Spermidine synthase (Zhongshania marina), 232 residues
Amino acid sequence: MIPWKKLGIAQIPNNGGELQLSQRGEEFSIRLSGVRGELMNSRIFNSEQVLAELGCAELKDKADAHVLVGGLGMGYTLAATLEAVASTAKVTVAELIPEVVVWNKGPLGECAKNPLQDPRTEVYLGDVAELLKVEIEKYDAILLDVDNGPEGLTHSDNNWLYSQSGLETIFEALKPEGILAIWSAGADSMFTIRLKKARFKVSIHTVRARVGKGSRHTIFIAQRPWRSTSSN
């Protein structure tokens, strides 16, 4: 069996741990040091693609749409987003860890066919939460593939994204009928309640990690109504 070769390491801010990028043949893995183990594998990306497909389902023919992707990872969500939007669209991907961007510009980028090289892609190096707090841009869709979903593993500051305050900020950052799509490792009934309290119309989708097999992940789809009301 081909052994794993470590290609790089990265520190997660605020004592979030250490990421390790490894390669074995054509397979890549990003692991979190310690007991958590593997976070991403280049062979397992179906649910990330579905996240983008559901989140951008209405944008294929929308000229000049702007999509925000929170979390670069191995680039699969970004690549699927670019496939789902028009040639005139703009896709901003926010990534907290500089090394992850570097890895995606290197051999890892080939897995998702180098979406960072697409001229529609703009990289924001920093916390997507901070971007949402200060950004005056209105987005057609916001896709969050950050940490492990509402129950984060690696970066405690991600908790704000999924808090009531964070969801209300995201609501305001969306255009009317804009979509918030969130990847989660599992279902979370309390999070669904928070989404509805933030005035979103919510649907929940269960998706396999690989097509037809593998772990079951949850995709939350939350739409900002055309006319906002005080409650959902």
